[in-house]
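Researcher: I'd like a structural prediction for the single chain below. Treat it as a standalone chain; there are no partners to consider.
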Amino acid sequence: MLRVFTWLVLAMLLSPILLVFASAFGSTQYMVFPPEGFSLHWFGEALRSRDYVESFWYSLTVASATAGFSTVLGGLVALALVRYRFPGRAALNALIMSPLILPPLLIGVGLLQWLSILGIGVGTSSLIVGHVIVATPYAVRLIAASLAGFDRSLELAARSLGAPPLTAFVRITVPLISTGLLAAAVFSFIVSFDNVTVSIFLATPRHITLPVRMYSRVEQGFGSTLAAVSAMLIGLAVVLIVLTERLTSLRALFLTERGKETA
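Model: Treating it as a single chain, here is the predicted structure.
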């Protein structure tokens, strides 16, 4: 019974993705299931669309910046949470993780009002700040898991041999937790690239991220060109996650973090 229920849940989760791919590779302009014929025409239309291409490069720029800032900030926070015990540690952890609990709409509205109070207009910088807030919790969890499985005696041995603390950390610790850093960067990139809610509030009409562009096109109808763009984004996310799993063993990171929490 449990197995049947599991397969039903998986089918319900995967069916929208299958419909998107069916429409993207179909020969008709709008979604028809089962698809009538096979065609790559809509992928060509998407790649020739100036709006989609410009939004893609803009999203790529924002997501890359977000990945960098989130990884650095997440690394510092994870280091503090894993290695040190200080007053307010639990509050800091709750604050950093709060974007995972709060509704995305609330985060977008709150950031917009906060920037308005500070007299800061919306734009690329504001958008990156918003995405960093949303993506940093993922970076913290992944890097904290990597630090939890790190044998700190190696760093302490380097310091006992005369290496300054910063040098020992950069040359010993950072290379050994590079899998967690890479996973954090990839997940932060994906979270930023796919974000819609925060981007709607903080983007400008001149610079629109790809998900927001797609969302605005949905109002005109879900055509096969939009399905092709969606299929390419799904494929990009899957490729990034698979490569990250191959290079970093995400399962081992999560198991390490789970063992740390239960200990």
